[in-house]
Design brief:
The structure is a single chain. The chain is an alpha+beta fold and 101 residues long. The protein has a single domain, classed as Rossmann fold, CATH 3.40.50.300. The chain is 19% helix and 29% strand. The protein is built from three helices and four strands, in the order ββαββαα. Strands 2-1-3-4 form a four-stranded antiparallel sheet, covered by helices on one side. The radius of gyration is 16 Å and the shape is globular.
Length: 101
């Protein structure tokens, strides 16, 4: 089995007394397909923010290609190969569908 490209170990993020993500561990390897699913408020966006550096974890660590990136900036993480995009549902009304894309 190959080494993980991205690995999270015991990731936790608390907001006050609320644990939005609690002890999540995962290992993503080349060639695999993964999905994070759950209802609104389940912590999917918080987990993504923890992995991409948009939020620091309260506990746990994140490794990218074997290097600890826990608490590093999104810019640092992006320069090392992990980027993300944000869902934008707004459209510019004067533009065509093609121009909006």
């Amino acid at each position: 089995m190959s080494s993980p490209l991205l690995e999270a170990t015991a990731l936790t993020r608390r907001f006050g007394g609320l644990a939005a993500v609690n002890g999540v561990s995962l290992a993503l390897r080349r060639g695999e397909i993964h999905a994070v699913i759950g209802p609104n408020g389940a912590g999917k966006s918080t987990l993504t923010n923890l992995l991409s550096g948009d939020l620091p974890p309260t506990e746990g660590r994140v490794q990218l290609l074997g290097h600890d990136i826990t608490g590093r900036s999104p810019q640092h993480i992006s320069r090392h190969g992990l980027g993300r995009s944000f869902q934008k549902t707004n459209v510019f009304l004067p533009l065509t569908v093609h121009e909006n894309v």
